[in-house]
């Protein structure tokens, strides 16, 4: 027994107030689908009416995509020790292609389950694991290819549309045409479109049958750009309770998926707590845990140990596995002259193994065996880029692109098994080389979703790599990347704390949204338009609440104009009350309404008249209310 | 008398310790030019030797561009009340085309000078102002067009090269080819190239003859991308002492120019303190002060008041003026249907004036008169985009592009007078519309330098607009923008404090450097390469010191691994001491050194031998020292 269990008991039963406090100015809504158990969560932001000074009108509430799960739902009861409600359980069961197992299939899992020393840290109340019936394939891709639209697919269609039907026409019409580089952007996402994209392998729905608590989401270039947050402890720092808290915190700030990258102790138990309490898909890198099982000696890893780890994690409910099966023996020497060699942890483990055994890795040699496991639980592949560049100098080199070719070959094998697959990407890449990465990935991987870390566009800003990488992330998202793995300010320096997670997610939500705007996703600009309208009309609270981080915006505003009255002030601290750039426009607008802006001549003539009126009225844009 | 003077006296005499503390791991150097008074400042970062584990070698120090002036020079004596040493004074005097005036030419300036109530806030010890001799033109463009290479131009050539001759060949060879969209990137900047670019109008050297304290710098697409920081008080907040402190702070974090956007009281005196203590060019928006002179009533502005303001500021030494002469009457109604109307303060003042008078502004009508003033002091134009979009919805609209066309016409008029000119740009622009801005600006303004605010790539992140805009800034910098005006996290919410200035500048130094890398500026990648090499070799201090913010990097590292011993640790808190992705590479490298990486077959054969060696040696990458 050590310090962690007791801390956990305290913290696990009650999340700290700051991770579950209500998000200002908004409420949880659920949009029902074709059956009552399809209830798609969204966050609806309520807006104040426009002041009469600006013409006075009601502003329709705006529904936004919501990853925060039950934690921001006042009607939900949160009990971390019981976990979330398994909303997909009946969908999975009714397909009739799975069985409930009598116990865990993995040897390691069983050992942990019966170890009394772990009683205090073990998550207690999980359901028995499920597995596909012998010979069955339970992946969403398999269903999609057989023409079946699952409830998951319908859920996703509703979710992606973000109630576009409720967006005012004014906001919709104000959207600039996008430039999508060949993406197939839809005006309205239908369940059939979701099915078709999954069938083609252009999108994945990571949702293990053992993670029925997950709210379905999709990753693909023809859908909204997603972001992933990494959490996880290491031998040096951080315990279980802290990781669960980070999970909830990450989702609050918009993480679409979360990877648990723990390498420290209680790796199995930490994961169970995370999955049982996560409405977002959870990804892992199973080789990390396999390495722990051989005490860190990479060369002692075996297929048997790795296989048992995959089954252990698949039965816990991990939704996607990063598998570095593309690190081939012949690529390893290509990294020798690099500035930063191999920087992927998984890649370095496999490279070490390959060197020690002088043969291709068990991940590569047993790839079809891995597919068999993936399809029995519907775990998606995230084919890892073990040779990604760790510096600008190493970008787009032979090692990186050699591995990418292999990932393309493996994608085709996975698809043969109807196993959902995405591809991981770099890393550190200067701006002029980013598009080559995206184009090559689309080409060699048959448009399987790309999932990139950044890329970081320069190496010279440790402490600010959320920014160096948000630049690259926005660009590659625009070019067609489906999911962006966040980078926090602590990248290269240390493990992120809660504030770093928030900073990293905000940078990446910005990048993802900027990409959606640039690609021209219908309705994507509605939030920008609503926020800018609020800004122009000095509806301060609405401006804050429509932003990605209402609390931060409000705090910053209050630093210079703290009084409540200033929240409806028709000026701000930048220009002061004396004059304000926004004031003039209302006058122009009033004038245009009277004379019609389409008629330039009439306007020019009317100017003289307006000029004297304007001066006669005291040259004040606003009259006193 | 009010509270500000006494505060000022205290603070002005001694800057706070955090703005002048030495920058870790580096020293000030001066590179001498063709004459001993051309002494170009740089910051040289000293590097530790590589540990013997990684082959042991010395690492050459790296010189980086340095905007921090005398404030980081231990040999300099700082006395804010006396101002900086006027390093360009003799260059200006020896040209023999200027005269020292007996007193200030501006009526307002003289009034302030003799107002005893201002004694306590007035900067005391300035030199008498200079002006061109009657009929003379003292702009750098004028000299350039007559084939004269000024000391300023030579200074700049040395500065831009950043001692490229001292960069090791390994770092230089490791640079990726850039993609410069038609820029004319040089392998080595010569004084003659500087002259030629200034003569063509493709670059400007903002350095008023009344600001001899300035260290010459250049703004143009064929030079390093520059960043500007805005400071300045408003009626609501901030006083003189705080602004001087912000100036020094901004330069410390890399501001290439600083704009004083004060709109509050003591606007004249604040500016004097700033200029006398600034080694970087200072820009202003003279209409702000002119407006103060008419108590904020835009319609009461006159050419006479504005003209006196220009002369007042020109004789103080302002290096560039933002002039919103492109806001024409016919463009104003085009803003009426915008979501956010007119968001530029200067633009809104001029629009109000145009509405009130029903005629074109005095800025437009007196543009050639303004040119006469500019060339008498060598003040550069920064032609303001008064109609820039304030929201994504308003990007690239008829009002914005109409004004840009007019700015192009005005550029040609300014060039007729040999007045240096740059063009201001937006604003809020989604990614897919950024390039159109750059291309159109280059086309209609004859490649005059573009100077953009961001652009912000989405409206939905108040509190994080340094990031929404750094994305757009990096992209437009790559496409050809010459200077990026920073945005701080407080944008739209309040005035930036010192921390916001730091955050904003770091985001923009990243954007500018990412742009330089992408354009392929020779030597630009050397810093990335040196930092990544340090990172790979676990030279922690070197990694921090090569970064844009050594202090922040070091603090972040210490949060999880605080002990000094960890600064040379061959692991970090992300993976812990147990295994580390970087460890494996050295082994691969050793192997490659033995067998030669070019020979794939030999490598494959050698693998078996290596594998057994590797295991026999304990499968440890590093042996104990």
UniProtKB/TrEMBL annotation, chains A, B:
The cofactors it requires, by name, are: [4Fe-4S] cluster
Catalytic activity, as annotated: 5-amino-1-(5-phospho-beta-D-ribosyl)imidazole + S-adenosyl-L-methionine = 4-amino-2-methyl-5-(phosphooxymethyl)pyrimidine + CO + 5'-deoxyadenosine + formate + L-methionine + 3 H(+)
Which key words tag this protein in UniProt?
A: 4Fe-4S, Iron, Iron-sulfur, Lyase, Metal-binding, S-adenosyl-L-methionine, Thiamine biosynthesis, Zinc
Cofactor: how and how many bound = Binds 1 [4Fe-4S] cluster per subunit. The cluster is coordinated with 3 cysteines and an exchangeable S-adenosyl-L-methionine.
Its pathway, per UniProt, is: Cofactor biosynthesis; thiamine diphosphate biosynthesis
Q: Does the keyword Transmembrane helix apply?
A: no
Every copy of the ThiC-associated domain together lies at: 22-99
Write the Enzyme Commission number(s) for this entry.
Answer: 4.1.99.17
Binding-site residues for [4Fe-4S] cluster, renumbered to this chain: 572, 575, 580
Q: Where does substrate bind?
A: 230, 259, 288, 324, 344-346, 385-388, 424, 451
Record-listed Zn(2+) binding positions: 428, 492
Identify a single GO molecular function assigned to this protein: phosphomethylpyrimidine synthase activity
Q: What function is annotated for this protein?
A: Catalyzes the synthesis of the hydroxymethylpyrimidine phosphate (HMP-P) moiety of thiamine from aminoimidazole ribotide (AIR) in a radical S-adenosyl-L-methionine (SAM)-dependent reaction.
Similarity comment text for this entry? Belongs to the ThiC family.
- Subunit and interaction comment: Homodimer.
Q: Which PANTHER family match?
A: PHOSPHOMETHYLPYRIMIDINE SYNTHASE, CHLOROPLASTIC (PTHR30557:SF1), THIAMINE BIOSYNTHESIS PROTEIN THIC (PTHR30557)
What name does this protein carry?
Phosphomethylpyrimidine synthase
Q: Which organism is it from?
A: Novilysobacter erysipheiresistens
Tell me the name of the encoding gene. thiC
